[in-house]
Amino acid sequence: MAALINVPAKARRGDVIEIRALTSHIMETGFRHTVDGKLVPRDIITSFTCRYNGAEIFRADLFPAIAANPYLSFFTVAKESGKLEFEWIGDNGYSSTASASITVE
Amino acid sequence: MPTTRRQFLSLAGGVTAAGTVPVVTLRPLQATPAMLNHAIRNIVGEAPIRTGRVKLDIPPLVENGNVVPMTVSVASPMTADDHVKSIHVFNEKNPQPNIGNFCLGPASGRAQVSTRIRLADTQKVVAIARLSDDTFWQVAADVVVTLAACTEEMN
What we know:
heterodimer, B: alpha+beta, 2 helices, 9 strands
């Protein structure tokens, strides 16, 4: 699944940086019906986690009220060079990951 | 012979008793303010919720309830002693009162989260922040929605 990650490539130590993550997912609410009255089963991402060099810096529990292709923006302090890892977990065993690297000077 | 009203009614009564009338689902399609309160109390417990410190940026009028941009920010120094632990967002009238829970910490640097949400109706959106001293702060915003999300028929 395609994910779009936006992390600054370089930052100064101690800077507060914005991280933006978007992944493609239908986020079917489970409240919609087809024209012939059948309930469309729920299929959403329920959890998102961001780790910075292994340490969790942000976590989100998502509900059907999050729009399709969930987008999240949050902040962190640039402490050290390394890797940011992103993980999405959802219904029907859905799981996807992405990562980005950052250089801290 | 034309059916009389009495015959029709007794027939209808018989049919109902036989249970052949389609069962009407009574599940509410909208979360009620009571469900909103319940969802908030699930997170907050019995703690008092104060108003202030939290800012909710959401357009007051949205055309399409399927994608509503929203930003929650909290006035906090985000130090180890004084930071925002989590932000919780709720709605009043979607089928489910929760929108999202976001966990932050001193490593966040700034207590601000943005996402895009769905709103099924013109309603109130509530954001609650839990600080490191376990106090809760909230803010509410009213949003007018012209095209609802979530419950429309799928084509």
